[in-house]
Specification:
214 residues; alpha/beta; 8 helices
């Protein structure tokens, strides 16, 4: 797998001013970014979030998933610590793409859960590839992580590829009345390491009202 580094720039956000690093996957043409803060190249493990693109949750404030809440919580935690990295990977819909994700949402509207919807469309439950993290992390001089995730597959994939995940930190934010079944499916069918009772009420800073009440 060949990932090319393209450029870096400042990225001011509500939480901190990050450095945004751009990368391109030669095989697919997809563009990925890493947001970094502080001295990430030191020997100490780096606080990290590996986040797959979710246009509906990250940009359109969807409450049918927890993606946007997780993204913002991860940036907040990195800012509070003063050091960390967020990898933003262009793997929409667990790898099926945006238009197929809309098709999957339609099936969910008719009663399918998130895994059943993907399978009815002919896809596996999760097609994401975490190997592309490795050349990005290597470029940035990072070899050990404190990973913010509920997904054991991310931990296993990074460890298998030679990145030492020394600690897993849960991200239990984003439970709404619209995504309770979705989160339950993550636990029951995808093996995510969380329980719904662990979740705290979400609040996106760009919204005036609490999405949990929408």
């Amino acid at each position: 797998m060949t990932i090319h580094y393209i450029a870096a720039s400042r990225l001011p956000t509500p939480w901190a001013t990050f450095t945004m690093h751009g990368f391109e996957d030669e095989a697919t043409g997809k563009e990925h970014i890493a947001l970094t803060l502080g001295d990430i190249a030191s020997v100490d493990p780096v606080l990290c979030r590996v986040h797959s693109e979710c246009l509906t949750g990250d940009a359109l404030f969807s409450t049918r998933c927890d993606c946007g809440y997780q993204l913002q919580e991860a940036l907040k935690r990195i800012a509070e610590e003063g050091r960390g990295i967020l990898l933003y990977l262009r793997q929409e819909g667990r790898g099926i793409g945006l238009l197929n994700k809309i098709r999957a949402y339609h099936l969910q509207d008719e009663g399918a859960d998130t895994v059943e919807a993907n399978e009815r469309l002919g896809f596996a439950a999760d097609l994401r590839n975490y190997d592309l993290c490795i050349p990005i992390l290597n470029h940035l001089g990072i070899n050990s992580l404190r990973l913010m995730t509920n997904n054991p597959r991310k931990v296993a994939a990074l460890n298998k590829a030679g990145i030492n995940v020394v600690e897993r930190l849960p991200l239990t934010i984003g439970l709404t009345c619209q995504n309770e079944q979705y989160l339950s499916t993550k636990v029951g069918k995808l093996g995510h390491m969380m329980t719904l009772s662990d979740f705290i009420s979400p609040k996106l800073p760009m919204l005036e009202s609490d999405p949990a009440t929408i």
